[in-house]
């Protein structure tokens, strides 16, 4: 299950609502008055992303660091990362200490990124995460 940019935040929001079950969890961009805004502002950004060892992110990217681009207006508010982590979500890549990739252990390809891999594509060589997702989908289709 890939999700990027706003999709990353909606993955976190749905995980918070249905697994962590806090009252009032919302996306600050859509519900600025929420008592529990999971997101906060983020300007267009490019940064070095560091992956965690033994993660799907590291395996798919084939590297411990990568430079990625964002066109998002919001990111996860770091005050809520611990709650999501305590309920089973794993943050496997960070940019300046802030979560940029989330994975759900035990799932074949539950990987969500705040950065946008498609911004790095040059049409001749898809981003490693796009290739990893396609490979996982092909692998799944041959199992059934």
From TrEMBL:
Picking any one GO molecular function of the record gives: identical protein binding
* GO cellular component terms attached to this protein's record: cytosol
Spell out the Gene3D superfamilies in the cross-references: 3.40.50.880
Instruction: List the GO biological process terms.
Output: CTP biosynthetic process; pyrimidine nucleobase biosynthetic process
Biased composition (Basic and acidic residues) is annotated at: 42-53
Q: Where is this region: Disordered?
A: 25-53
**What protein does this entry describe?**
CTP synthase (glutamine hydrolyzing)
According to its UniProt entry, this protein's organism is Streptomyces microflavus (Streptomyces lipmanii)
């Amino acid at each position: 299950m890939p999700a990027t940019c706003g999709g990353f935040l909606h993955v976190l929001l749905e995980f918070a609502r249905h697994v962590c079950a806090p009252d009032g969890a919302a996306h600050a961009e859509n519900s600025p008055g929420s008592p529990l805004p999971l997101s906060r502002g983020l300007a267009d950004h490019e940064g070095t992303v560091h992956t965690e060892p033994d993660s799907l992110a590291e395996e798919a990217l084939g590297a411990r660091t990568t430079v990625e681009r964002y066109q998002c207006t919001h990111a996860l508010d770091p005050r809520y990362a611990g709650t999501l982590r305590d309920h089973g979500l794993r943050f496997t890549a960070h940019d300046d200490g802030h979560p940029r990739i989330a994975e759900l252990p035990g799932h074949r390809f539950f990987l969500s990124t705040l950065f946008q891999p498609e911004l790095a594509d040059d049409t001749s060589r898809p981003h490693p995460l796009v290739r990893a997702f396609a490979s996982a989908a092909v692998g799944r289709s041959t199992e059934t």
